[in-house]
């Protein structure tokens, strides 16, 4: 019995559907949020410990690197929120077909991109 399956898959050449990309990004944004919460809780603890701690956190958050990190964390939150809303809509029975899934994925990417750009304008 000769198998026609490929032995070595080159993952860079496999064309994934848009629904796969939105699903992978949804999981990645969840992981980013999981680890980002630790950073934010550390900053909250430092800011509540004393006046000097608050001043230190305030000074740290005014740097461009900290603004970029906060923008990244909030971008992950916005994408995760929009993609999660898509999952809730699909749980309600809307967009469960292949075409509906593709359209929902495109809507998620467009809405999340618009919100992330607006967030960047608001932060800077």
UniProtKB/TrEMBL annotation:
A GO-annotated cellular component: plasma membrane
BP GO terms, sorted: tricarboxylic acid cycle
Keyword Iron attached: yes
GO molecular-function term, one example from the UniProt record: electron transfer activity
Subcellular location: Cell inner membrane
Cofactor annotation comment: The heme is bound between the two transmembrane subunits.
First-listed, main subcellular location of the protein, grouped into a coarse class: membrane
Coiled-coil blocks: none
Pathway: Carbohydrate metabolism; tricarboxylic acid cycle
Membrane protein topology class: Multi-pass membrane protein
PROSITE patterns: SDH_CYT_1
Pfam families: Sdh_cyt (PF01127)
Residue ranges crossing the lipid bilayer per the database entry: 21-44, 64-82, 103-123
Keyword tags: Cell inner membrane, Cell membrane, Electron transport, Heme, Iron, Membrane, Metal-binding, Transmembrane, Transmembrane helix, Transport, Tricarboxylic acid cycle
UniProt cofactor(s): heme
InterPro entries hit by this protein: SQR/QFR_C/D, Succ_DH_cyt_bsu_CS, Succ_DH_cytb556, SuccDH_FuR_B_TM-su
Record keyword Cell membrane present: yes
UniProt: heme binding residues: 80
Annotated SUPFAM superfamilies: Fumarate reductase respiratory complex transmembrane subunits
Known function: Membrane-anchoring subunit of succinate dehydrogenase (SDH).
The family this protein is said to belong to: Belongs to the cytochrome b560 family.
Known partners and oligomeric status: Part of an enzyme complex containing four subunits: a flavoprotein, an iron-sulfur protein, plus two membrane-anchoring proteins, SdhC and SdhD. The complex can form homotrimers.
NCBIfam families: succ_dehyd_cytB
Protein name per the record: Succinate dehydrogenase cytochrome b556 subunit
């Amino acid at each position: 019995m000769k198998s026609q399956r490929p032995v070595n898959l080159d993952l860079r050449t496999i064309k994934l559907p848009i629904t796969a990309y939105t699903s992978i990004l949804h999981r990645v944004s969840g992981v980013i949020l999981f680890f980002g919460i630790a950073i934010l809780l550390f900053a909250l603890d430092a800011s509540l410990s004393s006046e000097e701690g608050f001043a230190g956190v305030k000074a740290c958050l005014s740097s461009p690197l900290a603004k970029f990190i906060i923008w990244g964390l909030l971008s992950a939150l916005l994408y995760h929120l929009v993609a999660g809303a898509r999952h809730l809509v699909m749980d309600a029975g809307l967009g469960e077909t292949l075409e509906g899934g593709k359209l929902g994925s495109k809507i998620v990417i467009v809405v999340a991109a618009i919100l992330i750009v607006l967030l960047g304008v608001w932060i800077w």
